[in-house]
Design brief:
about 150 residues; alpha+beta; 7 strands; about 15% strand; binds iron/sulfur cluster
Length: about 150
């Protein structure tokens, strides 16, 4: 039977999931500490469907929703691993590929100590750019809605 992670990976057309073996191999969880990961509406919906309340895992930042930290790490990290791994946000799936606003294209996050072991594939770059544009679009839509209600 195929796991949920595989199904979501197929749906997103990503090969990034399997590359997370790099993290496991090095037992590296640095990206889950003091996380700044932004959340799409789909991420929020998916995580809430697991039974988590918004206030538990979301903080607002510059009009975005992002993962909350507790004790210096993402609320979903138990000190050993991600407790929602098959349902983690899209940004976590793509990491260490991130969209650099200054360069206006996707790059490997220099904060990842093992970034050299991840290929910066065309597909990952494209998905990262799409994620960025969607985040910007969702924030603009939310702002318009809030302005219209004032
Ligand atoms: S959701 Fe999981 S992978 Fe993403 S930052 Fe939190 S613990 Fe890490």
């Amino acid at each position: 039977m195929r796991g949920a992670a595989t199904v979501i990976s197929d749906y997103l057309g990503l090969e990034v999931l399997s590359l997370k073996n790099v993290c496991r191999h090095h037992r590296c969880v640095s990206c889950c500490y003091e996380t700044e990961m932004l959340l799409l509406k789909d991420d929020v919906r998916r995580i809430m469907s697991l039974g988590f309340k918004e206030g538990f895992f979301i903080v607002e930042s510059r009009g975005f929703k992002k993962l909350r930290n507790s004790n210096g790490r993402c609320v979903f990290h138990d000190g050993w691993q991600c407790t929602i791994y098959p349902n983690r946000p899209l940004g976590c799936r793509l990491y260490p590929v991130i969209f650099d606003e200054n360069l206006n294209h996707s790059v490997m996050d220099r904060l990842c100590p093992f970034r050299a072991e991840f290929p910066l594939s065309f597909k990952a770059r494209r998905e990262s750019s799409k994620l960025y544009l969607k985040l910007i679009d969702e924030r603009a839509t939310k702002k318009r809605l809030e302005d219209s209600q004032q």
